[in-house]
Amino acid sequence: MSRALQLIPVTGLGEIRRGDDLASLLAGAVELQNGDVVVVTQKVVSKAEGRLVPIDHDDVDARLEIVMSESVRVLRRRGDLVISETRHGFVCANAGVDLSNVDQGWAALLPEDPDRSARRLRDRLRARTAAEVAVIVSDTFGRPWRRGVTDVAIGCAGIAAVLDLRGTPDDRGRTLLATEVCVADEIASAAELVMGKASGVPGAVVRGLDPGWFRPGSVSQEVIRPPAEDMFR
Amino acid sequence: MSRALQLIPVTGLGEIRRGDDLASLLAGAVELQNGDVVVVTQKVVSKAEGRLVPIDHDDVDARLEIVMSESVRVLRRRGDLVISETRHGFVCANAGVDLSNVDQGWAALLPEDPDRSARRLRDRLRARTAAEVAVIVSDTFGRPWRRGVTDVAIGCAGIAAVLDLRGTPDDRGRTLLATEVCVADEIASAAELVMGKASGVPGAVVRGLDPGWFRPGSVSQEVIRPPAEDMFR
Asked: Less Cβ crowding at N or C end of chain B, within 10 Å?
C-alpha cells in the first residue's frame, strides 16, 4: 500500500465511431503493463458501441423524452434538470444522456451494460497485448450535497469495485467496523485529473495499484445500492 | 492536461499528538516540490489540533450525544447511523465523529474550520520548505445511492476546490453548458488509493497537476451546496 502510483493520460485515439476497435486504439496509444488499470470514458465506449440517438439540440422536449425513456424512476425535477434512476440503477442527472463532445444533432446514451462493455474491452486488451490489465468505464456524476461533478465508475472488469475492509484491524489492532471503500470510483476520479472535460483525452492508465485488488469485479453488483438500503430514494 | 501525475504515499510520521507540528513531520518525510499538493487525513489534523473527546466506546448513547452536538440538522436516522448536517455544512454519517485509529476511550471530531487548518498547514510548509505547495484535508464520506465510501476534501488551501469549465469549448468547439468539476474531491479520492484505511498512511503527495488550478481555494465556499440549490435535504 505504500508505493507510488502513476496516472498516465491516453491521447491520440482520434474521433471514435461506431464499430471502432477501442482495444486496438488503446493498445497502440500506450504500452500496457501487467497490473495497469485502463480507465475509459463512457463517451468513447458509447460511441464505439453506437449508443447514439439523433436529437435536435435546441428542442428541450425531445431531450426530455430521451431522458425519460432511459429512466425507470424520477427522483427530482427542477426545470431542465431531471434526477432519475436509470435502467441500470444509477441515480444521476438526465439519465446520463449527454450532448457534449458528440456531433451536432446527436446525443450519447449510457452503454446498455457498462460492466459487459468493460469485460469485452478487457478481453480484447489482454488478447492483443498479453498484459494482465483491468478496465473501468467512467462517467461524470453530480452529488446531492456537494457542488461540482466528479468521475465515478459505471462499469469495471478485472478489479474490485468495492474493497471490503470489514474485519481488517486498524492501526491500534482494533477491527474496523464498517469500511467498504469504493476503489473503482476513486480510480475513476483519479483518472479524471489527467483527462479533463474539454481536452479530448478519453482515457487514462493507472499504474501501481495493490495487486490484491485485482479480481473479476462488477459495478452493478457491488456499487449500486439496493432500494432496501437506500435512505434517499 | 496531458502529462502524467504521481501519487506518493507519505509514511513514517509516527503517532500524532496534540500540538505536534505536522508541517515539520511532513517536510521531513517527503521532499516537497513546487506544485505539489499535500493531502492529509482529517484524523491526523484533528489529533494535532486536539480535536478529541473522551468516550466510552461501548456506550451507544454517549456516542449519539456527541454526534448530535456536532450536528445542526438530522436528515435520516437508521439504528446507530445518523446522516446529519454538521456545523460546517457537510452532510455525512455520524457528523464525522470517528472512533477508528484513535486511542481507546477517545473519539476524533472534525477540525473546527478545515479550510483554516489547510491554510495554516500550507503556510508552515511553505515557510519550512520554500516550495509552493497546496494542501487538502481529506475525510471519508458515504454516498446516498452508491455503496462504499470514498475520500473527499473537507478543507483546502492553495488549490481550486471546484474548477469552473463553463464557457470552455468542448472538442467540437461548442461551449460546455454546465460543468464545474470538484477537483479537490477527485484529488482526495486519488490520494486515498495510496493511503488506505487501515495501513497508517496519513498523507500523500499529488505531483504534476495543472498549474492553472493553483489559487487560494476553499471547500466551504466552493463545495458546500447552499440549501436553496439542494434537492435532497
From this structure: C
What is the residue whose three cell numbers read 449519539?
B64
Q: HSE of B163 in the Cβ direction (CA atoms, 13 Å)?
A: 23
ipTM (interface predicted TM) = 0.95
| DSSP designation for A18 | T
Contact B52, B107 (CB under 8 A): yes
User: Tens digits of per-residue pLDDT, A147-172?
Assistant: 999 999 999 999 999 998 877 777 77
Q: What's the length of chain A?
A: 233
Beta bridge partners of A153: A138
Look up the pTM and report it. Answer: 0.95
Q: What is the count of residue pairs from A and B with beta carbons less than 8 Å apart?
A: 243
B176 exposure class (CB count in 10 Å sphere: 0-12, 13-18, 19+) = middle
- Tell me if chain B has a CB within 8 Å of the CB of A74: no
Query: Which residues 107-166 of A have a C-beta within 8 angstroms of B?
Result: 140, 143-152, 161-163, 165
pLDDT, tens digit, for every residue of B128-187?
999 999 999 999 999 999 999 999 999 999 999 999 887 777 777 766 656 899 999 999
| Residue showing cell 441500470 | A88
Shortest distance between the Cα of B124 and any Cα of chain A, in A, equals 25
Helices B114-129 + B22-29 axis angle, to 10: 50
Q: How many CB atoms lie within 10 A of CB A122?
A: 24
DSSP B58-88: T-HHHHHHHHHHTEEEEEEEETTEEEEEETT
Task: List, in sequence order, every residue forming a beta bridge with A9; answer none if it has no partner.
Answer: A204
Residue B92 identity = C
Q: Which domains does chain B have, with CATH numbers?
A: 1-50+111-223 (3.30.1330.100), 52-109 (3.90.1660.10)
Closest residue to B198, CB basis, from A2, A169, A206 = A169
Angstrom distance (rounded) from CA A37 to CA A46: 19
Question: Quick one: CA torsion of A12, A16, A21, A24, rounded to 10 degrees?
Answer: 0
